[in-house]
Amino acid sequence: MPKKYFYLIIIIFSIGIHAHDYTPIELSQNKKSLSNEIYAKLENEHYLRNIDKTNFNQNYVLAIFENLDKRKNLFTADEFNKYINDSNKVGDNDFDIELAYKLINLYFNRLIEFSQFQIELIKNDDFDFDKDEYLDIFFEDNQWVSSYGELEELWRLETKNDLLIAKTSDLSSSEPNSDLEKRYMNRIRRIQQQKEEDIFTIAMNALSNQFDPHSSYLSPRSAEDFDVNMSLKLIGIGALLSVDDDYTKIISLVPGGPAEKSGKIKPEDRISKIRQSNSKKFVDVVGWRIDEVVGLIRGEVGTEVEIEFISFNSDTDTTKLVTLKREEIKLEDRAAKSEIIEIDNNKIGIIDLPSFYIDFAGYQNNNKDYRSSSKDIKKILIDFNDSDVDAIVLDLRNNGGGALIEASKIIGLFVADGPTVQVKQKRGFIRPYGDNKAVQEWKKPMLVLVNRYSASASEIVAGAIQDYRRGIVVGQRTFGKGTVQSLENLSEGQIKITESKYYRVNGMSTQNKGVIPDIELPITWDINTVGESSYPTALAWDEIRPYRHFKFKTNDGLINRVKNQFEYRLNDEPNLNYLKKVRNRYDLNKNKKFLSLNMEEREVQKELRKDWLLSIENQRRKELGLETFISYKELEESNEDDDTNNNSINLENDFQLIESTNIMNDFLNLSKISITSSIN
């Protein structure tokens, strides 16, 4: 960078920075006492009662750094080293919340400086988009820079990238500079609205996460929101949100909600803009407080909201758009769905179970007509038996869990005898858990379909089916959440603490490793980027003594032949080939270190990506005998029209579900061959 230009930046920055000051928030005595209360709760009530306290405060401060400055663009190496050195002045069995407050205050002050710096750059608009410059986007292996001047250079490149995205986006506005200036001003406004509760929450979640990633502090306001999210009736789009840098990120989708039914927006996607149905303009929400974003998303039942977002597994920062109709999400919307299909004269029943739901009020009041997932699935299985269905596919993809009692009852419909899971308490006591009154409703072949977002109760079901050798598990390695949390009241707010751990009947934990499928289906992204194993403080995998249990008589030779059939089809089947091609491209780009800031190069890259997507889609369609698309726009419009019907299972473009039915069909056909051969 030319020195003249560098000094110009310094001058511009120094003129404008003081227009927006940040007032540090001091630690109150009340919050200091509350922090000690939380720490005592974690020490005494957490599953890991003897957590290693070596360098505890240093790790605590390091976690705050990593959480607040993932991109390493807000602190210098000297600042980092100073706080780490200061953290070592505290004993192994203690933490320094005052130091945490100082660091968090420095972070917000620096964020305002960064924002003001960006505003001045945008106002001057002296960017050269013909110049070959590059932004480091693979920051996981980066270190904090050595000087404030290097920070400013990072800020310049990031601002240039923001403007380039705004100028080249398919959904770009006519005033990208103005939009970005508003975004940066919003960030400053959000910071200046910080209260001690916000600072305290950051500090306490960093503290509780030292024990494990699922223990957390809930402020009185957060506890109220948590209760709303856990209720059976929700109004909105059905998405749980959190903050990731300046973006509001999708954490999970409520089964049966508008977001989940759209099939377009996924966990880890980042929201950039929101537009109401009665407005012509999008509102840029990057840098907004999360409660403000939630306020824009929520609204009257039946009204629409448009959300612009960046897909988490995209190899570019290209934005996408989804239109969602706000609904009251009821238990019925989350209910199991079923469908019967026929392949080679084999009837295969499909059950889509989005969550393990139960009407707790009805259950506790002994209401015989209460609704639950196990009762609904029992009815489906009875119908399948009456319809002479030969085998079933139980779809647990994206099922984040739910009521343990329901998971146990559902397993009992397939495995009548034996426990469902083992539960180990924090004091080491282990007890089996299962439905003692279970009646095996389904006695024919079955397959369980899972993915990386199948968690908790879903993993218990998949693991039990695998351990009892009751069926085939297909898909991807599951999430790996094998822990149980409880909510405990504090003098202010609540704390969610991990109190116990799940173990399969074979003695192995689902924690961290998840359930490994018998047959792994291709997927378009790297599952290691999400899931329990991606959390630095996730509890380790371990195992206990297996619980004595029987196993169904399964022909290993038959299973191996089914796997061989799948492997053969993997190299030939158009849908599977499509998934492999998308995944190969993802692997080539996932570790891309630098992003070009040359406008022409970015535009070329974007068009090449569109051409490639159109090419592989048309190749897939041609091999399947389907009509091809003339243009990428036609492909996009087709995807927009492909809305999921909540009352039925959509097999048309669900390649993994299609392949699961093929695997089950292979099993049935090979079983007939095997039986015939044995008779002969």
Nearest-angstrom radius of gyration? 27 Å
Secondary structure: number of strands: 21
Give the DSSP E fraction (strand runs of 2 or more residues). 15-25%
Main sheet record: 6 strands, antiparallel
- What is the domain tally? 3
CATH class bucket of the largest domain: Alpha Beta
Q: What's the CATH topology name of the largest domain?
A: 2-enoyl-CoA Hydratase, Chain A, domain 1
The low-confidence runs, each spanning 5 or more residues with pLDDT under 50, are 1-19, 226-234, 675-680
Q: Tell me the CATH architecture of the largest domain.
A: Alpha-Beta Complex
CATH superfamily of the largest domain: 2-enoyl-CoA Hydratase, Chain A, domain 1
Structure characterization notes:
- There is one protein chain.
- Helix 3 runs antiparallel to helix 4 (77-87) and helix 3 (56-68) packs across helix 8 (196-208).
- This protein has 20 helices and 21 strands.
- It is α+β, with helices and mostly antiparallel strands and 680 residues long.
- The strands form five sheets. Strands 4, 5, 6, 7, 8 and 9 form a six-stranded antiparallel β-sheet that branches. The chain has a six-stranded mixed β-sheet with strand order 11-12-13-16-17-20, sandwiched between helices. Strands 2, 14, 15, 18 and 19 form a five-stranded antiparallel β-sheet that branches.
- Helices cover 42% and strands 16% of the residues.
- Residues 1-19, 226-234 and 675-680 have low confidence and may be disordered.
- It folds into three domains: 3-210, no CATH class; 234-329, Pdz3 Domain (Roll), CATH 2.30.42.10; 334-575 and 657-679, 2-enoyl-CoA Hydratase, Chain A, domain 1.
